[in-house]
Protein: Radical SAM superfamily enzyme, MoaA/NifB/PqqE/SkfB family
Organism: Amycolatopsis pretoriensis
Amino acid sequence: MSRALSADVAQALCRLGLHPRDLVLYVTSACNLRCRHCYVGTDLLNAEESYDAADVVAFAASFPRLRRVTVLGGEPLLHERINEILTGLVALTIEELRVTTNLTGFFNLDRGRFRPEDLLVAVSLDGHDAATHDAVRGRRRFERTCANIAELVEAGWRVEVTHTVMRHNVDHLRHLIELCRRLGVGLLNLHLMSNMGNALQNPDLVVPAERWLEARRMLEGLSDPHGGLRIRYPPLFVTDAEYRRMLASGEYHPHAAGSYYADGDRVVLYPDGRVYISSEAFGTEAHIGWIVDGQFHENVSPSSELALLSSDPQLSIAEVTKERAGSAEQPRVLSVSFKRTIFA
């Protein structure tokens, strides 16, 4: 099913005071996998919702100061006109154009139409070996994904690994780092599993806050300014005092107050037509509006993330949606999108 986007959507966002420099575009919900931890969820994946290719490019072009655009799904390379989408976005000369993919195949992507420097390819890899990765993504997925990563790296493409930290892989991060080095990728980007979508049926995958704090200390102990692999990780849990300090210093702010990756706002177009700012708001009534027949309809309820931010400028949307809980010692929950960077 194709979903339209009209010029009204960009204009409506501007009327709300949002001037995106960081766009996250879920161009399709179609996917060849049904991962146990997928936050999009099987129901939406099965619906195979896709935005019209020309509309996606025109929407992005409405924001001339864009710095960062992320294209994802579902599996974005399954979009029938993914080459048209990417060609149009490349022509906008965006500083950072990213495609997030499971890379079990190249599907509809015509690599011959692009230069390796045109795109950054972020590949989902959820284990350091086949047993760990395939336990959540399906049989023989690890083998195919690693082979395709190696092919892109050999051809000079910029590749990073996106890794979802779960209970069954949290203790293997050292091994994952070694795999990333062998594959020759430039960045390892860590997320914690989001407790939404398919994850709600698989609570055994959830990492307790205490386990993540142990893993975080281990990662920070590996920090080496001369290391060749960049690692981005979410601190996620902090004390009340640290939370206040981070707000006061400007190190941290609510995501609705600005993107963490660009000097401006972040806007997320979800494949079901809802529009968000924070990832923690996905699937909740904190969305800022939705798109119906190409037109934007604002969420005017007090549960909208913009309304919540207006009532409390120090809001943590992660705590409002209760998507995860902190530990006894570090009870405050930061956005999963807020990352620190080390080299190892």
Observations:
- The two ends are 44 Å apart (CA to CA).
